[in-house]
Design goal:
Two copies of one chain form a homodimer. With about 325 residues, chain A is of the alpha/beta class. Helix content of chain A is about 45%, strand content about 15%.
């Protein structure tokens, strides 16, 4: 059984690199399996421990994740590394369980409109899938962490504004279903820090001992500010991707996840030790640049480097 | 006499476009006077009211501001528009007074090292200059606002870490000298939101009725998060530049000021009405692109547009 408290301990911040899955969801060129493995290992060497390693969605539609089992194995071979795989249905969950990945994630859309348009099912059906995931977890030998994320939780590209009470209702449904961790995602980067802080506070309150993960996109430049607000309101798990990799189908030209290396800087500046070496992390961008030369990479730390005082302190 | 409360009223947020001065401090190509005037007028039409219009530094060293009087006049011709000009010595102050610009700004370095290296004078001498500015203001007919900004207030490219108590001491000196407004500037974008919030809080407390302006650079991607923290701690005047124009000589490749249009979005998302139309503002970037094709422009709103709900509400 994967111990949630061991992976996501109370009171310390865990940063998750989601570039290997969310970051690759929409890219035109895909890194080779070997490059993905180097990416993961080099970030591990920089101190990163949690990696979204890919998805068990149909390889026909998402060929970039056809090697997900190799990446699961790469993470599994590194002491203390933790892999997370996305699944959206029972077939995917069973494949994920068979792979031995220690965390299985699924998604519930915050709005009925987006659920139907994106996943061709109702939100109730998505919740039923989460419940089934928990049953399959309980019946498995290794009992991976089950994580359910509410997508479009801070604004929906189809329905527009989202009622936070509705998001909290869905969080409750996921908790009732038996999940080990809950995510709230600003999938299309609609929100500012006030909305993110308020929703985080409400989610943390209702989740009690169950960890809340806040997954932010930097679509409108609010990513780091939103992460700061989430931390202020008690979130201790945050997602990001190296170089802010990963666009958005609903906002052409929009950037992807929060820039991972800037997120590390934010956390350290707020007094949360991450165990991650920013300069080593920034150096990993060279893999992305050579494998995906046409994908824009973002980030302040990569441009400007660490402040000289911090560099002096580290030296 | 320029009424500080009319320009910077208590309890509402004032956003200042500093691109026409700070943004142009280091660019390789400079917009024509006509282009600067269109830039200012088009932003005015989008709802912007406060503009740093240039500097009265020697035109030999800073030829990009040789037309500062034209830009002062452009702002003066627009009802409710407010121009601000940078000066660093008595000659500059006298020229600024003669131009009729309604706000004159000067800078005091937070560290002795930076003051000597950058302005070739001690901090005491910089404070004496601020005092002289106030005397010249009092002796003038139109009595412009005198604004003193503490540069490197959140980290120094030469001295490294900066003691916040030292910054507050300098703020006090400026208040004693008789300034109408005080600025604290993260000139090289060293800080995270915790440090910005803490310093803002202390400065707002000591300044009492005197408005505090927070001037942030996005060097390490923290600009918007830092602006959010400054707002949370009571700052009501924030600087930014369209497209984040403006680099930093101490950090090659580093971006400049906080992206103005993203700053507007941040404020609105936090419930602070700015009176600025983001889409109109973003459209002004075309002037910068055509005048300075080699200067990178940044910003989330320009890439992704407004969220659909906001657009629907505005329509």
């Amino acid at each position: 059984m994967t111990d949630v408290q061991k992976i996501y301990p109370d009171g310390r911040v865990t940063l998750r690199e989601v570039g290997l899955r969310d970051g690759l969801q929409l890219v035109k060129t895909v890194p080779s399996t070997q490059a993905k493995q180097r990416w993961l290992r080099d970030e591990y060497a920089a101190g990163v421990r949690c990696f979204e390693v890919g998805s068990f969605l149909p390889a026909k539609t998402f060929p970039q994740f056809v090697d997900v089992r190799d990446i699961v194995a790469t993470a599994a071979a590194l002491p203390g590394a933790h892999g997370i795989a996305l699944t959206l249905n029972e077939r995917g969950v069973n494949e994920a369980l068979a792979s031995g990945v220690p965390e299985i994630a699924s998604v519930v859309s915050a709005t009925e409109e987006h659920s139907q348009a994106n996943a061709h099912r109702s939100r109730d059906s998505a919740i039923a899938n989460v419940k089934r995931m928990c049953e399959l977890r309980d019946a498995s030998a290794h009992k991976p962490i089950v994580h359910a994320a509410i997508s479009m939780a801070l604004g929906c590209s189809i329905a527009g504004a989202v009622d936070p009470n509705e998001v909290i209702r869905l969080v409750e449904k996921c908790l009732e279903a038996g999940v080990d961790a809950v995510g709230i995602a600003d999938t299309v980067g609609y929100a500012g820090p006030k909305a993110v802080g308020d929703l985080t506070k409400a989610a943390v309150k209702i989740a009690g001992k169950t960890p809340i993960c806040v997954h932010l996109h930097d679509t409108r430049g609010m990513g780091i500010a939103n992460a700061a607000a989430a931390l202020d309101e008690g979130a201790r798990i945050l997602d990001g991707s190296l170089g802010g990799l990963g666009g958005c189908p609903f906002a052409p030209g929009a950037t992807g996840n929060v820039v991972f290396e800037d997120l590390v800087f934010l956390c350290e500046s707020k007094g949360f030790a991450t165990g991650i070496d920013i300069e080593k992390l920034v150096a990993v961008r060279s893999i992305l640049r050579s494998e995906m030369p046409n994908e824009p990479l973002y980030g302040g730390l990569a441009r400007a480097g660490l402040p000289c005082a911090t560099a002096a302190k580290a030296a």
